[in-house]
Amino acid sequence: MSMPTIKHVRAFTLRGGGADYHDQADGHWIDDHISTPMSKYPEYRQSRRSFGLNVLGTLVVEIEASDGTVGFSVTTGGDLGCWIVEKHLARFIEGARVTDIEKIWDQMYNATLFYGRKGIVLNTISGVDLALWDLLAKVRKEPVHALLGGPVRDELTFYATGARPDLAKEMGFIGGKMPLHHGPAEREEGLKKNLEMLADMRAKVGSDFWLMLDCWMSLDVEYATRLATAARNEFGLKWIEEALSPDDYWGYAELRRNVPRGLLVSTGEHEATRWGFRLLLEMECCDILQPDVGWCGGITELIKISNLADAHGKLVVPHGSSVYSYHFVITRHNSPFAEFLMMAPKADEVVPMFNPQLLDEPVPVNGRMKASALDAPGFGVRLNPDCALYRPFPR
Ligand SMILES: C[C@H](O)[C@H](O)CC(=O)C(=O)O
Ligand SMILES: [Mg+2]
To answer: Quick check: pTM over 0.95?
Structure first.
């Protein structure tokens, strides 16, 4: 089979939920007084949008091959991501063969090292990489998971992230992860409220359902240790997530030594590349790695991160990212379950995670998803034509 080459790459922005899932309207649980690194400033405490969490918007990368096949992806990146794709990365993509994924990744990463390594540049590289995997799989008329070695189990099992683990339990999920609402700046009173919320949820879900807390980079080691100890010993918390700044590898190592036996420490959604995750692994920062495939470097990098984690005996449970995660998780032994982010404003029903930007996006039913739901070519999704695309830097 002669492989098509890449004719054109285009980058667009899109607003309103979807891949930038924090870009939601008023009244959504995801923006309701959540503890953040900015919570020490009272004026930025009530809403994450108040300090600009939704400034980026969605980045759509579209890659067209010489045979007319089009691969695409969505991630967080907006106009800045578009600029990086069109002004810098396009030179490594256009003219290459659709099979040149590894080489293109290496060129994108090394050419941006002087201003990249993490953050928006890696989000953008991830977006290009996901679009390349979508394209190659479509050219081959196979789902992406087939290119990754194929499913190792018949179905995916999900825990739900949202404000209502009690409803998630009724919907068939294996656990519920809640955002922490109060940070260290709200002192003892805030700590008490955090534990009261957990106590209330434990009473609602019973003793066996997994409950987790997502601290979104907002705590210090001392506070996190106190919270984790009480939450585990009194309310059976399963894991404490992203308790500290992603730059504080030393703090994570200390926290992991401090927490009660049986409580898992998870982190990694704001980490990128095999080198970032190598630090988390070698410094024994956590029990579960949570790379976001739309931010950590794409599928090409997630393969490496996952293999590294496997050799260290660690689980990889990717952060969010809908179909881009599902196609990976179904192929890995050390990813035994997946995350589902509840994007309904009150977390009271299952809606597609990247709603409304994608069409044909599969959702868990009774907390599960059959491998066969992922059998369409590529990542199996289409861009919703009702969402208005904008191309800020056309060439
Ligand atoms: C709920 C968290 O604050 C965040 O919005 C999502 C996240 O970190 C996760 O799903 O994990
Ligand atoms: Mg998280």
So the answer is: yes
